[in-house]
Amino acid sequence: MAVIKEYRTVSEVVGPLMLVEDVQGVRFNELVEIRLHNGEFRQGQVLEVQEDKALVQLFEGSAGINLASAKVRFTGKPLHLGVSEDMVGRVFNGMGEAIDGGPDLIPEQYLDIDGQAINPVARDYPDEFIQTGISAIDHLNTLVRGQKLPVFSGSGLPHKELAAQIARQATVLNSDENFAVVFAAMGITFEEAEFFMNDLRETGAMDRSVLFINLANDPAIERIATPRIALTTAEYLAYEKDMHVLVIMTDMTNYCEALREVSAARREVPGRRGYPGYLYTNLSTLYERAGRIIGKKGSVTQIPILTMPEDDITHPIPDLTGYITEGQIILSRDLYNSGYRPPINVLPSLSRLKDKGSGEGKTRYDHAPTMNQLFAAYATGKQAKELAVVLGESALSDVDRKYIEFTNRFEEEYINQGFYTNRSIQETLDLGWELLSILPRTELKRIKDDMLDTFLKPAE
């Protein structure tokens, strides 16, 4: 067995980085233990090795480190997380240490937090419907088991309420397998952390949830580890314990800011808007850990949440996230200001796998036609409202007025369901039909006649 050496050759500390010289046999990504002069222990990870120098990224920050007396040990293994089924119902910090006052975990195994990419040949196609209880998602932008579907929000919009609602309500229909929610919060305030914990406890959803909370005052470096620790837990519960796991990660923007901070400390050449050039690759190592595996019952489904700086969808973070993931749910500031909750902007939102998770045997056979018709009618109604602003109400035809009535009621009744209403997919579909009955039957061109005969209520 190799002897672990202790080095006292720290030559430089810059921000979250430490340079150790005269090292031997050190490998990229291995875990580092630093003992300070006062006996305190800190952890880090090897970022770069060049000849006999090692660059170490510190998890707990560099404040108080004395270069002359700090002792550094390279453990020879990457950062591991001890996992167990008992993690469900518990709250951990961003590094995977329990902070809820409960008993210590007895790990069943230790897993490398970087995980492994799923072999594309071993992937099973996502095609099972997940019901979130939110009409604008379930019906119009269906979430499918094994999918990654991000929420694009903006500063001050209620994405935390939406995240908590999905965590409470999400369920796989017609399935006897266990469902769990892994919640990773990065760089959030203490107030937001309390909101998530209290909301899940009060509604009983805590019993099937695992929370990892990295607060805004925690070191930025910890933020880089938090989503990986959460995904390692999710993969263990999914592929070892046959659970359906929904991973909600908020806020990915804080994660990317932490990457930028480390990149700047390393004096790397910045990419777009100062973010590192490898931002796309780095994000993909997180998002691509969602999926189903052939022969395994469990699955990992992801809902990453990010706030778009200045509501700019072309910003690098939402831009690159949109490339990697299968669609996006976009929150609208206009709907929010009008008092609609959740303020989901239906028209630019998209779930690329919605056709695979809906229809006969999954939801109901009228799902896709009503979805297409609602989209079309809402878009037409929006145009009619803009026309009315330019030309005045008198320039509108009777059909245009019907579309405006439909659009107003669609926003008021369908989108604006509130954060504590849990609608089944059947209730959502029935509501969709009720709203479509406002329009003349001749306008419902995306639905076949026999389906209209079955579901459409005659106009009064």
UniProtKB/TrEMBL annotation:
Residues of the ATPase F1/V1/A1 complex alpha/beta subunit nucleotide-binding domain: 133-351
Coiled-coil region: none
Keyword RNA-binding applies: no
Sorted UniProt keywords: ATP synthesis, Hydrogen ion transport, Ion transport, Transport
Domain ATP synthase A/B type C-terminal: 357-455
Molecular-function GO term, any one: ATP binding
UniProt xrefs under SUPFAM superfamilies: P-loop containing nucleoside triphosphate hydrolases
InterPro entries recorded: ATP-synt_VA_C, ATPase_a/bsu_AS, ATPase_F1/V1/A1_a/bsu_N, ATPase_F1/V1/A1_a/bsu_nucl-bd, P-loop_NTPase, V-ATPase_su_B/beta
Domain ATPase F1/V1/A1 complex alpha/beta subunit N-terminal: 10-76
GO biological process per UniProt: proton motive force-driven plasma membrane ATP synthesis
HAMAP family recorded: ATP_synth_B_arch (MF_00310)
Assigned protein family: Belongs to the ATPase alpha/beta chains family.
Function, in words: Produces ATP from ADP in the presence of a proton gradient across the membrane. The V-type beta chain is a regulatory subunit.
NCBIfam families reported in the protein's UniProt record: PRK04196.1
Name under which the protein is recorded: V-type ATP synthase beta chain
UniProt organism field: Abiotrophia defectiva ATCC 49176
Lineage, opening ranks: Bacteria, Bacillati, Bacillota, Bacilli, Lactobacillales
